[in-house]
Amino acid sequence: MADRDDVCILLPTYNEAETIESVVSGFREQGFDNVLVIDGGSTDGTQDRAESAGARVVEQSGSGKGQAVREAVTRHIEQPYVLMADGDATYRPEEADRLLEPLLSGQAAHIIGNRFADMQPGAMTKLNQIGNRIINRAFETIHGRDLTDILSGYRAFTRQSFQRSSLTASGFGIETEMAVECVKHNISTAVVPITYQPRPDESDTNLRPFRDGATIILTLYQMAKTNNPLFYFGSVGLGSTVVGFGLGAFVAYDWVVNGISHEVIAVVGSFAILLGIQLLMFGVLSDMLVAVNREQTRRLEDIAVQLTRENRARPADVFDDQQIDDADRSDGGQPDHADTGTSDRVEDGDAETEPAVSTHQPDE
């Protein structure tokens, strides 16, 4: 089983000088020597305090939490397991084993810490709680999985599963993308309870509730295009169809009751109905293609796993004759047929067989 040396603690930060030192020290006290702080160009001394606490500090090349996480995992982390947390001291380092236990034991490849399991008073405003509930419910509706708290910043995952995901978010949408990609690629995911505590009074949040919330919801909808195309196209198609029938009902009512015709509105309504039906049909066909693609991908992954197991089970000293001959030629020699006790030599077109000569000399 893997140990703490195989885990890298990832802390994306931006102006977290008031808390980063205690966060880094907390993880190091838990036995984690690989602590990486990737900073977005803080101006309050965050990098210096992180280094003094024993972390390896890297300044990200771009901006935003999402870009920082992607850059850190792909460029600066070599360990097979990653434990990601925030640098604002809202998560407890002593609860790291809750996330790592199912990860290191192979039970799941992505672990999410559920903040709602033990949320301390004042840790999250009522507005943010309502927004989180709405986003989690929207995720369940659109992508068909209930992961309880998809916006949690305390999570653990394998670097391999991260590299399988197609992540593009640059800001706080990175957690949303990771959750969607887990569902899309059928990455085994588990949810564990954690404690979510308030930020220290002197620490300021970088979260903008309305703007970031709208971005996250938009990300959820956009990613439905490849994960749940029936919802993506069907929702627009259904809306267009309803609008078309509404316009048609108005035109019919006004013509029957008042004798007034609305040719333009009738044309627009008919167009909306046709567009809506076409989008619904396209959504159904796209959903079928996605289902077939997932099944084929799953079969290919099963074959790859089976081949890997067979190669590992194959003894290292099993070679066929051709492999032995190739190895001899690569050493500049001739194939050795030691099993016959003779060596073949061809001279002037005639083949003659000579006894094998032993290199052992008699003792004098």
Automatic annotation (TrEMBL):
Output the lineage of the source organism: Archaea, Methanobacteriati, Methanobacteriota, Stenosarchaea group, Halobacteria
- Basic and acidic residues: bias regions: 326-348
Which positions, given as ranges, span the membrane? 230-253, 265-290
- Does the keyword field hold Membrane? yes
Q: Tell me which residues make up the Glycosyltransferase 2-like domain.
A: 8-162
**What species does this protein belong to?**
Haloarcula mannanilytica
Q: Which residues form a coiled coil?
A: none
Q: What are the entry keywords?
A: Membrane, Transferase, Transmembrane, Transmembrane helix
Q: Where is the stretch described as Disordered? A: 316-364
User: What Pfam families does the record tag this protein with?
Assistant: Glycos_transf_2
Q: Which GO terms describe its molecular function?
A: glycosyltransferase activity
Write down the InterPro entries for this protein, in alphabetical order.
GCTrfase_AglJ (IPR026456), Glyco_trans_2-like (IPR001173), Glycosyltransferase_2 (IPR050256), Nucleotide-diphossugar_trans (IPR029044)
Protein name, entry field: Glycosyltransferase, TIGR04182 family
Q: Which Gene3D superfamilies match?
A: Spore Coat Polysaccharide Biosynthesis Protein SpsA, Chain A
